[in-house]
Amino acid sequence: MIKKVALIDEIKENGLKVEVDGEEILLIKNGDEIFAISNLCSHQEKEMSGGKIEGDAFICPHHGARFDLKTGKVLSMPAVEDIKIYKVILKDGAVFIESENG
Ligand code: FES
């Protein structure tokens, strides 16, 4: 099912936290693209909001683990597990996320 979670303009430099089906998701703007990643780092389950973007990577603000924004793959320690990413659909200035749970 597809859910509207925000307006594109609401996503500022530090991203925007939203919740879908009880999961915290961080919306991130990188140029013209919007990504939706888990707001919980796979390292110590700390919040990813406040992290930085470098190229196609997102850097956790806590201990600097890097994740690929497009795939969620872990790129550097101290995290060793990938993070969840969500499919984003942009329409009429709004951000929709495809949620797995009906
Ligand atoms: S909590 Fe993200 S790198 Fe440690």
Q: Which SSEs are present, and which pair or pack?
A:
Elements: E1 2-7, E2 16-20, E3 23-30, E4 33-38, E5 52-54, E6 57-59, E7 66-68, E8 74-76, E9 85-86, E10 88-91, E11 94-98
Antiparallel strand pairs: 1-11, 2-3, 3-4, 4-9, 5-6, 6-7, 7-8, 10-11
The structure holds FE2/S2 (inorganic) cluster.
Provide the number of structural domains. 1
CATH fold assignment: Rieske Iron-sulfur Protein
- Helix segment tally: 0
- Mean pLDDT across the residues is 94
Beta strands, count: 11
Low-confidence stretches: none
- For the largest beta sheet, what order do the strands appear in spatially? 2-3-4-9
Structural class by sheet pairing and helices: mainly beta
Q: Tell me the name of the CATH class.
A: Mainly Beta
Main β-sheet: number of strands, strand sense, barrel status?
Answer: 4 strands, antiparallel
Note the overall shape. globular
User: N- to C-terminal separation?
Assistant: 5 Å
Percentage of residues in strands: over 45%
Q: What compounds sit in this structure? A: FE2/S2 (inorganic) cluster
**Percent range for helical residues?**
under 10%
Oligomer: single chain
